[in-house]
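Annotated sample (chain length 732).
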Amino acid sequence: MIAEKVKLMEIKRKARIDKKTLEDLEFTSVLQQVSEFCVTEPGRQSVLEIKPFEDFSEIEPELLRVKEFTASFDGENRIPNHGFEPIFRELRLFTIENSTIEISGFRKILSISETTRILLKFFKKYEEFYIHLNSFSETLDYDANISEEINRRINKYGEIKDEASTELGVIRRRLNVVKGKINSSFTKALSQYSQNDYLDEIRESVVENRRVLAVKAMHRKKVRGAVLGSSKTGSIVYIEPQETLEYANELSNLRYEEDEEIKRILKALTEFIRPKAALLTSYQDYLTKMDVLYGKAKYALKINGILPILTSERKIFLEKAYHPLLLVSNNKRKEKTYPQSIELVPNKRIIVISGPNAGGKSITLKTVGLLQVMLQSGMLISVEPQSEMCFFKRVLTDIGDNQSIENHLSTYSYRLKKMNQFLKKCNDKTLFLIDEFGTGSDPELGGALAETFLEVFYERNAFGIITTHYTNLKLLANELPHAMNANMQFDSRTLEPLYQLHLGEAGSSYTFEVAQKNGIPYSLINKAKKKIERGKVRFDKTIANLQKERSNLRKTSQSLKSEEQKARIESKQLEEINARVQEKLESYQELFDANQKLISLGRKVDTLAEKYFNNKRKKQLIDELLKVVMVENSKRKKVAPKVKKVIKAKEKAVIKEVEKKVEVIRERKKEEKEKAKKLPPPKPKVPLKLGDRVRMIDGRAIGTIDKIEKNKATVNYGMFTTNVSVDELEKV
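Output written by the structure step:
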């Protein structure tokens, strides 16, 4: 049962990732954006209540279901509509004894039942393509009797069918007979009084759902029947003819009987479905889950989300990772978003990011944390496909100014309480993210305490990223074997942030340089420099100079690499040209030698022909011609019979060997064909179009299709383009 499974999953889901961490990482904002794609209210509500899964075994199937849903948007076999009207009210009524569901309620129940049936049938039909969605759907018990019973009694217009019961059929037939009598008797009266000129020009009207004669007020006493009203001016009196009154009363009685029979039918239908209320709950839960998957899949398309490689090793490798909220916001404003690439592995498991403010340190930290939480909540993330991620039991964060007025806590007191929680919970299955580590107190004392905390986290083999301006933490990261420094790149000339993370070295805070850029007088800056230790200024300046040199070296290295690559390509091209020229020269030389030989032989034959022309001596001509032939044959190499035998034996051996290899190849192909027959048929291939992101089958590099001509696609990889057969490509 889906309902029971969902409850069990909710119990398991009691995430160790606490609410404050999710708030720090702005996970609720992501859920809000995802919920906007849902088409039902229960779906939207379920998305807003999403919490990270606790078990790795639950995460992977959910991610694969979302991936399949995402793929369906561009495929031919698009998943049918899953929208529905909630039946919470009807389910509550089922719990109340002797309650009756209205026709509108049964129509909603029918809609949910039929939508569920259509989805189950669809996933079963295309189970090879929707493997994980089908396996999830197969856990649902479906009962066709609910739809059949409702369809047997209620038509598509929301009316009870005549065949719903024998009694109703009889009543409806009697109603039709009485209606016919009313019409005929009214028509007869209408004709009679019309001939007598008792009626107004409109002749008839309808009052209280009854047909009445529009009688002129002066003739009202001449018409037998019941007066039901008059016009505003009083010139017309509305009279129901005496002939129809008896039938009208009978009609009222029959309608009352019809209403009572309909109530009885609805009551019986309610009692039939009441025991199946739990089943209907599971249908609604199933469709709600489909809506949640739909919302996640649509959001994945919006942020170009993909499923990274999931690994059981303790490893995070994010290639071109985007902060989803920042990406969506910048796309709206048509601004560029800068991706970050970062890696955490056991031998480099802690990263200390330093550098000036407004350089992107906090965003980088939040990007890693938010993508980890999203992945563990079953969402696709905005990274490159070769990215790898593992599962963390806990994600601990300390981000932003957490001054608590309610609890009378200063920023530093709050952060110390937070560090105490970290010390209790931090272990080798923890990812910790701390922004501005050690701030809030005296720099030297706070820095010393922060250094001690960092050593404890390091000893417990935790993974983590921290941002700081403290020099002692930068030095510690440089000394610890499994920790490393990193910095956010700045343009040393303009002091503008480049929003690029560089691993391997600490960053300067550019304190005095930024102050000078912002117009602080140089005399005041010099005065400030004198007030602090000379060694600290020199250390910060040294780091800044190293960053400048590193930046210049990187640019030089990139230009040298590009030139080296060009030189290699040109050298290879020259070698190929040289080889082709050499081949042509050799073939021309052979052709020249053969032609010279033929010319020489032709001259000899021409001389013999001229002699024969002059003397007509056949014998002499034949003798000399034979000499020429013998001379030419003597130049040819003769092969001894023994050598001939050896050559023939070698040829036979080669032929036998070739035959053996051919036989082996044939056997292998037979085996491959048999294996191919046993294997399930390949998934239907998604047709490619311009602008699609693709990669070579079994390849890693991803490009974009610029052009498709005659089953050939021009794929743009950024640095270069290439022509590839469409059959060799797969859509990402």
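Annotation: DSSP finds 22 helices and 19 strands in the chain.
Annotation: The longest strand covers residues 199-207.
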